[in-house]
Design goal:
heterodimer, A: alpha+beta, Ubiquitin-like (UB roll), five-stranded mixed beta sheet, B: alpha/beta, Rossmann fold, eight-stranded mixed beta sheet, 10 helices, 33% helix, globular
Chain lengths: 91, 268
């Protein structure tokens, strides 16, 4: 089972400059755990110390924000596109 | 208001568009747009809105023009290095179109002054360069029910959304809290490709024109994301958050927040 994850520019340092990586898992939580094995450091960019998803980075399954689905328990399947979208402030 | 012959000639290429016409042009000439930041986003937005004949444009910026701004901040020119950006913007805009009344505000927005500044405008463009200002602008616009065009850029990425308070999601519905200081680098540390600022700033100008004219579909409750490397646009949904502490059903924000007080944002 492979799922495509789109990595935003601010996190591409961790993914060795890749804007797209493949991952697996039955839900977002598992996907991120697995991602952490390949790209150490990514998890702490997405979760705070209390293991909550950070409030200035959103994760989308296709075009839906997981905060309005089941959070990191949101189930995912082959062919889904996962996007990580952080707040950016430049102007 | 009726259009002069010179105005009919100047704006003829858009007056002939269906949806605009003489009536639409008159609407633009009597409209007031506030642009926060005469930088990478504010520059293209201001120039195109001025060219289109938006009658009043307020420009808020406390900074002075620096040489390293000119790679993207096309309102300013080499001879204006060292000059106030708001003043430099006024000079450039009036050279382009003297129909436009440009009001410069050489100041930094705070919880004390923001409501007074935005209250007389029809719509606000956020082209600021830091999180404290962005959250302050969002909250103030929600409080005053002022439409807001949000744009943000970082390296090769851009984001745009339009906020109609009371109707569509606000910036805090999308990102409830700003990142703690130091976690997300700003433009000066990260770099930015000038054309990304141009593309996103013009998306904001486009949203503002449609809002003022009452035409088309706005980027409300949606986030448009652009990446310059892949030349790719994407749109994701932003549900209006009933629990949003600024625009939700039971808002708990009672006082505007100056995040600078506890964020050590590096000022230029």
């Amino acid at each position: 089972m492979c799922i495509c994850i789109r990595i935003p520019t601010p996190l591409q340092k961790i993914t060795k400059d890749k804007s797209e990586v493949m991952g697996k898992g039955k839900n977002i939580k598992e996907l991120i755990e697995n991602l952490e094995k390949d790209y150490p450091g990514i998890k702490e960019r997405l979760y705070d110390e209390k293991e909550n998803l950070r409030r200035f980075i959103n994760i989308y399954v296709n075009e839906e924000d997981i905060r309005f689905l089941k959070g990191d328990e949101t189930e995912i399947k082959d062919g889904d596109e996962i996007s990580i979208i952080p707040a950016i402030a430049g102007g | 208001m009726s259009l002069s012959n010179e105005q009919i000639e100047r704006y003829s290429r858009q007056i002939i568009l269906n949806n605009i016409g003489g009536k639409g042009q008159e609407k633009l000439l009597s409209s007031k747009v506030l642009i926060i930041g005469a930088g990478g986003l504010g520059s293209p937005a201001a120039l195109y809105l001025a060219a289109a004949g938006v009658g009043t444009i307020g420009i808020v910026d406390s900074d002075k023009v620096e040489l390293n701004n000119l790679q993207r901040q096309i309102l300013h020119s080499t001879k204006n290095v060292g000059k106030s950006k708001a003043e430099s913007a006024k000079e450039r805009i009036n050279n382009l179109n003297s129909d436009v009344n440009v009001i410069p505000y050489i100041l930094r927005l705070t919880s004390e002054n923001i409501l007074d500044i935005i209250k007389d405008y029809d719509i606000v463009i956020d082209g600021s360069d830091n999180f404290p200002t962005r959250y302050l602008v969002n909250d103030a616009c929600v409080i005053l029910k002022k439409p807001l065009s949000h744009g943000g850029i970082f390296k090769y990425d851009g984001q745009v959304m339009t906020i109609i308070p009371g109707e569509s999601a606000c910036y805090r519905c999308l990102f409830p809290q700003p990142p703690p200081p130091g976690l997300v680098p700003g433009c000066q540390e990260a770099g930015i490709l000038g054309v990304v600022a141009g593309i996103i700033g013009l998306m904001q100008a486009n949203e503002v024109l449609k809002y003022l004219l009452g035409i088309g579909e706005l980027l409300t409750s949606k986030l448009l994301i652009f990446n310059a490397i892949e030349s790719r646009f994407r749109i994701v949904k932003i549900p209006k958050n009933d629990n949003c502490f600024v625009c939700g059903k039971n808002p708990t924000l009672t006082k505007l927040i100056d995040y600078e007080e506890f964020c050590s944002v590096k000022k230029r």
